[in-house]
TrEMBL record:
Molecular function per GO: protein-containing complex binding
NAD(P)-binding domain segment(s): 7-134
InterPro entries: ComplexI_NDUFA9_subunit, DUF2867, NAD(P)-bd_dom, NAD(P)-bd_dom_sf
Keyword presence, Glycosyltransferase: no
Transmembrane segments: 450-471
Protein keywords: Membrane, Transmembrane, Transmembrane helix
Protein name: SDR family oxidoreductase
Amino acid sequence: MKILLTGANGYIGMRLLPELLENGHEVVCAVRDKNRLPLDPKTTERISVVEVDFAEEVQTDSFPTDIDAAYYLIHSMSGSTKNFDEMEARSSENFNKYMAVTSVKQVIYLSGIVNQEELSKHLSSRKKVEEILYKGNYNLTVLRAGIVVGSGSSSFEIIRDLCEKLPIMIAPKWLKTKIQPIAIRDVIAFLYGVLNNEKCYNESFDVGGPDVLTYREMLEKYSKIRGLKLWIIPVPVMSPRLSSYWLYFVTSTSYKLAVNLVDSMKMEVVARDNKLQKILNIQPISYEEAIKNAFIKIEQNLVISSWKDSLTAGRISNLKEYIQVPKYGCLKDEQIIKVTDPENALNNIWAIGGTQGWYYANSLWRIRGFIDKLFGGVGLRRGRTHPDKIYAGDVLDFWRVLYADRENKRLLLFAEMKLPGEAWLEFCINEENNLIQTATFRPKGLWGRLYWYLMLPFHYFIFGGMIKNIAKGNYVSKPD
């Protein structure tokens, strides 16, 4: 079968793609930027890529028409607190227009469980999208899931941040809300299981794991598995705004996503039945098993995708707009050093950020991350998905990877921290084995220029030390 996979570089899409390929399907990956889709050379003969933004004006001229089935995995919740529902509705309407020029027989949509009359904005938007997709000229299959637990999932990473960083929690009343978590492996099994299954045409199914838990029980079970002490002190009242700030400052989530999550956490999310399990003969694993499996992937550096790599969580929506570093009206700090072992220096560049840190004055980088959080930025807590692999579109703490070409020894980052301007950080090693490190800042107004000159002493100190340590062979970071 020829399958259209929308959101192919998203958290779910990156997990589903290998499953489709392993089962012999040809996959058309629909993405906004093909540079953000890391592909295995062994499978590229069965993968084609089409660049399309479903939120923009429909242009079907170059869109493939010989599609047998499609997965609709487009969500916009992390991008806005106000109009993400409008964006999701517009995207689904445009998706139907694209499907109208194809031979698609089935569309599979991953939605959220909606079993209350009064829904959060997030779940209401999911339901609206479902209604729009049902108007399409194809057979629709809807899977409704609650919290997805797996390495790199937003729910897992938030629970992980809370339990690992806060042994004592003053928690809001939504910790009593009941939910039914499901492991990412089971979500993928269900998504693939309904493909080309006529019993699932024009049907909506709730999918969940075997456990119905409160948020408090989820935190306690996680802490028990990890051998952590956890004390939770419930408070009767905590406003949604305070709850959002609480999540934002403690976890790696953005403020926009925190607001939408808190709005949804007030709603019980429990599957109404398990009829799809019986149709497909799938037995979901428990919440505890899902947590243990997630850590197996983390410990083996096998995390395929992470919610933090979503572009909508950051400042930019299109890498192409920023990949050309501006030359005029900019302020620069350029450092050049000769390297004796370019391969080891390249390894250091490709390991930058996350637990490795930034090679010099890591405490100052952490302070800068904390200040960024105070002003509503992303901070340093996003880390990185893999310890030594980098792809365009990935997150590196409060930077976004714009370009990563190991063969040509070049890495280009764009700052997503709060700044009075725009900033790029570039590393490259030329043919003469010179390591060139360039920080570029395009200031916005007088305050932007003042910011740069105020930071000059720190830049001289930090960037100078950073390039020297990157140039060292087999550099190992030390706490400071």
